[in-house]
Amino acid sequence: MPDLPPELWTQIFAFAADEALILQHRLPTSMSGGERNPRRSQEALELVQRRSYDTKKAIVLTCKKWRAIEYQSLFHFLCFRAPSRLCDILDTSAAAATTTTASLGWWTRRIQLAGINNDTATPQEHLDVLQNALIRILRHCPNLEILVVQWPLDGGAFAAIADALVRHAASSLRTLFVTIPASALHKLVTILPALPFICAAHINLHPGGQPAITPAGSDDCLRLPSLRQLSLSGRPHQLIHVAKHWHLSALRTFMLSCATSTEAQLPATPAFLAAHGAQLTTLELSSWPAMPLARMLAACPALITLAFSGDWALDLPSDAGAPPDTPPFAHARLARVGLHGLVHTFCLDPFFDTGSEAELEAAQMNERVLALLCDRVRFPALRRLRLLTGHVVRERERAQVDGDGDDTARREARIWARWEGMYARAEIQLEDCSGQVLPPWPWVPTDRHDDEVKQTGD
């Protein structure tokens, strides 16, 4: 075994255990790999952490020298579902430590808690155990940088955990990922100013109680000078309405995912972008019904990356019934676009009857969105288009195999051939949801198929 200094061994072990990936502060986005589902992204990272932990255990068990060097790294990130033994270890370590750095919790940079392994507990008992365990662990982690709590918290549990976080890790925390009820919004707004160095936050708001905050008042003065990424999901409209008054000078990425919205709630997001969109470089939107995308693009002149639904009906100034102040659907700097949806073109939406008039109209919306994006006058800088719905990409693979099969397969093959030809002429690269370039379409339509494609395009 080479006689290397401990510092070099530490770097080698960190590389082998994927620590750089696990301890990064930024949140995953759809354009950084796949369909953007924050919960699934954290679950995938949980698997990486468990594999990394197995690697570290193997290193520690190799020899006494490596154990002395690497043992503390077992506590760099804590990912658990049964916290009782971990709490005991940290308590014992802190009691026996002669200095602060001798405590094992001093080395912890990331905590991820998905739930508690206890099938016999009621939901409230489960939550009480989770709350008490997390507060107990936070007492030992003064250098915590990332806190991920995937289990939905109630207002009381979040308030207690938030107080512990501010008390023990206010100056070190960089990333916060929580699921809270609407009734906890006031507590969230109260603790955020006490976390001055937070740079990434994901807040998933679920129904539960009434928000105890108003659009005006002391909430307007909230300043988060380091926040670069803000991700909101669930039912965040009240929080968005308040956040438009905040001071977010460093914000560069805004991600919004709403399962359902109403027409009355939609203005909150355009108003937020009117206040904070000037410096944004990444905007990701997933909601229904459609949002006024042209107006939102106009509010974000520095935007480079955009993700939205290809199933949205886009309003253009020339459309009948469009508001007179509708800006053109265009952007001079946009270089990367990700499209959710596009399921209607391939009859993949279970809420539509196959071949119905509603489905045909929705498919025409898909075609319109794609045609507008490859217009070089509207989007001169666009170079990459990513398909973010895995089901659509899998349908493409099936159409490649069955292109000369049944009528449905032939129809889908012709659609893909037309789309890819359109984007190839515009010099825009098509990618699948993982970012891999889609291979050239192997199936070339015959003259009869060309006629059908032309009629479909008309």
Would you kindly provide a written description of the structure presented here, covering whatever features stand out?
The protein has 458 residues and is of the alpha/beta class. It folds into two domains: 1-204, no CATH class; 290-458, no CATH class. 39% of the residues lie in helices and 13% in strands. The protein has 15 helices and twelve strands. It has helices at residues 6-16, 19-22, 38-60, 64-70, 84-96, 123-138, 155-169, 185-191, 237-243, 268-276, 293-298, 357-373, 390-401, 407-425, 447-457; strands at 77-80, 110-113, 146-149, 175-181, 200-206, 229-234, 253-258, 282-286, 305-309, 336-340, 384-387, 429-431. Strands 1-2-3-4-5-6-7-8-9-10-11-12 form a twelve-stranded parallel sheet, sandwiched between helices. Helix 6 runs parallel beside helix 7.
What's the short version?
The protein has 15 helices and twelve strands.
Task: List strands and helices in order, with pairings.
Blueprint: H1 6-16, H2 19-22, H3 38-60, H4 64-70, E1 77-80, H5 84-96, E2 110-113, H6 123-138, E3 146-149, H7 155-169, E4 175-181, H8 185-191, E5 200-206, E6 229-234, H9 237-243, E7 253-258, H10 268-276, E8 282-286, H11 293-298, E9 305-309, E10 336-340, H12 357-373, E11 384-387, H13 390-401, H14 407-425, E12 429-431, H15 447-457
Parallel strand pairs: 1-2, 2-3, 3-4, 4-5, 5-6, 6-7, 7-8, 8-9, 9-10, 10-11, 11-12
Helix pairs in contact: 6-7, 9-10, 13-14
